[in-house]
Amino acid sequence: MKLIKVTDESIKTILTDLLKRSPNNYDQYASAVTEVVNDVKENGDQAVLSYTKKFDGCDLTAEQMLVTEEEIKEAYNIVEDRFIEIIRKALVNIRDYHEKQKQYSWFDSKPNGTMLGQKVTPLESCGVYVPGGKAAYPSSVLMNIVPAKVAGVEKIVMVTPPGKDGKVNPNTLVAAKEAGADIIYKVGGSQAIAALAYGTETIPQVDKIVGPGNIYVALAKKQVYGNVSIDSIAGPSEIAVLADETANPRYVAADLLSQAEHDELASAILVTTSEAFAKEVEKEIEGFLKELSRAEIIQKSLDQFGYLLVAETMDQAIETVNAIASEHLEVVTANPFDVMTKIRNAGAIFIGEYSSEPLGDYFAGPNHVLPTNGTAKFFSPLSVDDFIKKSSIIYYSKEALEPIHKDIEAFAEVEQLTAHANSIKVRFEEQ
Predict the structure, then answer these.
(1) pLDDT 10s digit of each residue in the chain, 431 long?
(2) 203, 224, 230, 269, 361 from 41: Cα distances, Å
(3) Rounded distance, CA 319 to CA 242, Å?
(4) Is 420 a catalytic residue?
(5) Rounded to the nearest 5°, which phi and psi values hold at 385?
(6) Annotated catalytic residue 405
(7) How many helices (H) and strands (E) does the chain have?
(8) Any bridge partners for residue 108, and if so which?
């Protein structure tokens, strides 16, 4: 990891370096993704099955794309009862948290004959993309399906790539069943995104697509946006830890590595007011690397995007983490709640030394689908809000419209929209 003193110039350099990881900088893959998306749009199942054979090494028929009840039962027989129990415990927390986000329609009527309001309607359908193979994350299944379920989405369609044997990861299937997926298809990659966006003979078109994936999935979501809604173009995972000399360096080191193990582009950043503490953390990291299973990936991540940043004051440290706007931010200081009030930009904020990032990944309840690559400055975590839409309600009686109709007509005439003005005027023509 690179140990750097915090200055305006060093932060600017680091931010530029981190942005290189954004999917928006991988346009060299865009033409290949466009070819797949257009092929699926035009040829439906035939194209989907062809790419599944080409990219996943799995030769399926259209009928075999659908995951059957028998396959789900088989998954339950494979998955340990203890893990199913843990999934159910996590689901209670995740549902409870998201239930508090629900919004309701409201109407405000007044004696003058007006009624204004907002009608909240869940999306009719959504597609949930779930990675397969080595990157099978049942936790992401829960985090993407539960808010849609709580919002009241009628049809939740999950897609996930099959293995060469035509099977889906059993942990993924059990998580999907427990969370409430309505239908599951064995299809992955950019072809799955295109199928959900445009529909095929077998896979239905949906209103919104959510869920993580590789660069091809991210670019496919970017391409189909507009035809359907999407959650975001997610980049590699990242963590920032804001700590002072009172923090436990072993805990901080372990937390930094928890994200660095995701992939070689993941970012782990310590921001501290103590250079001595930063060096202690670095020493602990070296020790952990000798025993962790994904040490090679972690080392590459730390070499490329790992930083130990030393600030002169806590205010400067806070300013630094706000500039980074990390996906995950841990605050491990003498007064973490006071510091938390000054944090403006972070996907999720973990407070205190026992609130480590994996708690949020799996169990606490808040969603772990978070803004990355500095987008926490203007984006929020996945939530129930992502699965609803709002319609404005407007009602005026003739008596309510009469005293203001000339004002509306005048406004329209200033904009030279005479048909707008006329639409109001005709209602008050002398009979």
Answers:
(1) 888 888 888 888 888 888 777 766 677 788 999 999 999 999 999 999 999 999 999 999 999 999 999 999 999 999 999 999 999 999 999 999 999 999 999 999 999 999 999 999 999 999 999 998 666 789 999 999 999 999 999 999 999 999 999 999 999 999 999 999 999 999 999 999 999 999 999 999 999 999 988 889 999 999 999 999 999 888 888 999 999 999 999 999 999 999 899 888 889 999 999 999 999 999 999 999 999 999 999 999 999 999 999 999 999 999 999 999 999 999 999 999 999 999 999 999 999 999 999 999 999 999 999 999 899 999 999 999 999 999 999 999 999 999 999 999 999 999 999 999 999 999 999 75
(2) 12, 10, 17, 42, 35
(3) 11
(4) no
(5) -55, -30
(6) no
(7) 18, 14
(8) 116
3-state secondary structure of 393: strand
Return the residue matching tokens 């026992």. Answer: 354
Among residues 231, 214, 55, 4, which one has the least CA distance to residue 127? 231
Residue 285, CB half-sphere, CA atoms under 13 Å: how many? 28
Beta bridge mates, 391: 119
Q: Which of 262, 280, 284, 328 is catalytic?
A: 328
Q: Which residues of 393-413 are buried (b: 16+ CB within 10 A; e: fewer)?
A: eeeeeeeeeeeebeeebeebe
Q: What strands, in cross-sheet order, belong to the sheet with 208-210? A: 183-186, 155-160, 125-129, 208-210, 229-230
Q: Which residues of 349-385 are buried (b: 16+ CB within 10 A; e: fewer)?
A: bbbebebbbbebbbbbbbbbbbbbbbbbeebebbbbb
Task: Choose, from 178, 280, 284, 327, the residue flagged as catalytic.
Answer: 327
Rounding to the nearest 10 degrees, give the CA dihedral for residues 38, 39, 43, 47: -140
In terms of DSSP H, where are the helices of 57-198?
Answer: 69-78, 81-99, 138-151, 170-179, 189-198
Question: 357 with 259: CB under 8 angstroms?
Answer: yes
3-state SS, residue 167: coil
Among 242, 249, 255, 238, which residue's Cα sits nearest to residue 277?
A: 249
Phi-psi region of 42 (alpha: psi -120 to 50; beta: other; left: phi over 0): alpha
Strands 114-122 and 388-396: antiparallel
Helical H runs in 105-188? 138-151, 170-179
